[in-house]
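Ticket #4471: structure export looks truncated?
Reporter: QA, pipeline team
Priority: medium

Steps to reproduce: submit the single chain below to the structure queue and open the exported record.
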Amino acid sequence: MTLEMRPDCERCGTDLPADLPGAFICSFECTFCTECADAMDERCPNCGGELLDRPTRAKALHAKHPPSIVRKFTG
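Actual output as written to the record:
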């Protein structure tokens, strides 16, 4: 099973490309940008879990294992 690699911050809508650093996730893959994760003291507002750095996915792997295109920000 691979990570969804969600494309945006659930709190502010910032784009979070799968091949770049700067995304934080909890164990349920709720996804937030660095600024929002810092503002929430690295705690997921949805489940209370710890937010950790999301690994990046090399662009060369996007064809075989594409990142999600479903945006979670509802603004």
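Status: closed, not a bug. The export was complete when the record was re-opened. Leaving a note from the reviewer for reference: The chain is about 10% helix and 10% strand.
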